[in-house]
Amino acid sequence: MTTIGILGGGQLARMMALAGAPLGLRFLVMDSAADACAAQFVPLLGADYRDETALAEFARRVDVVTFDFENVPAESAQWLAERVPVFPSPRALAVAQDRLAEKSLFRELGIGVPAFAAVDTRAQLDQAAQRVGIPAILKTRRLGYDGKGQFRIKTVADLDAAWAALGAQAERGGLILEAFVPFDREVSVVAVRGRDGEFRTWPLTENWHDHGVLSASLAPAAVDAALAENAIAAARRVAESLDYVGVFALELFVCASQLLANEIAPRVHNSGHWSIEGAVVSQFENHLRAVLGLPLGSTAARGVACMLNWIGELPDLRVLLAEPGGHWHDYGKSPRDGRKVGHATLVADTPSALMEALRRVGVALGREAQVAPAIDRLASPTLSP
Length: 385
Description:
The chain folds into 3 domains: about 5-85, Rossmann fold, CATH 3.40.50; about 115-180, 2-Layer Sandwich (Dna Ligase, domain 1), CATH 3.30.1490.20; about 185-380, ATP-grasp fold, B domain (D-amino Acid Aminotransferase, Chain A, domain 1), CATH 3.30.470.20. Helix content is about 35%, strand content about 25%. It has helices at about 10-20, 50-60, 75-80, 90-95, 100-110, 120-130, 160-165, 170-175, 225-240, 275-280, 285-290, 315-320, 350-365, 370-380, and strands at about 5, 25-30, 45, 65, 115-120, 135-140, 150-155, 175-180, 185-195, 200, 205-210, 215-220, 245-255, 260-265, 305-310, 325-330, 340-350. Strand 13 and strand 14 form a beta hairpin. The N and C termini lie far apart (about 50 Å).
């Protein structure tokens, strides 16, 4: 029986394991947190990711290694890759871990990207602001996700505060200044590439965030066919340039008819959770198929779907379960402000049916504001914001 090793034991590892059970797969997760939520279903090797003794045991017990999150030390991934197959590759992981390397790759591949500049000193921040322009966002090059490690600069007067907030990170991992993008919409391409180079994508997904954290996703996104083709072509170029194996997400800003790349997530992605019930084969199962060299499954949508993230605490699951197309996912985490503790997905045959289901759920849960953007898009599926 094949054993998949997963570095990281969060909800993504948990959902991977649930998707892999029907395939007869076994799993082992490695995480430094004793209460990692995947460990409720999967054996846990509790250790620091830099512990070579633990890494050696991990490698000995698994047949292939993949990731639950991208901030695993690249050197640990490389150490494992010298002993057991690792997908995606340590190189792909290293690029996605560094915003400067990531943005530079986009530019090399001819993919539109907001203006950016490396920042290592306070003086360089002033120079970067002149080149990139203001408003802008100062970000850590590494270890940033869900809006963390960022400072929005609205005027020149904010430069001192931005450096005070993030300047200490400059020596440890570097900073990057990115132009602020007044986008119309945020979309993502969730894609999968097999060991043999086969490439597939799920329908383009539209996303809405609340304080930098994903709040809702709608798929398929109502976009012009040419724009969707351009987004998919950009994702393909990224995948092929990195010889990528597995599922990844390319996050994009839509500015009128132009696409600007935001970032790569080298793993299964929150904006692809809708695929569990809303697609023929989910991102989690296809990721496992890809890293094992198995044939990839269909990424076609089953109707239209909306995923709602539960942040901080779970609402009443009975409201979702009362909906014919309602599906509930509890991550087994304790409540905490800002923490992703679960999600729900509503699937319907038609946009109008999904819109009515979202209205009912929003009212019943007191979450009208969370469902409103998706309802508005379903009611008027145009390219306007």
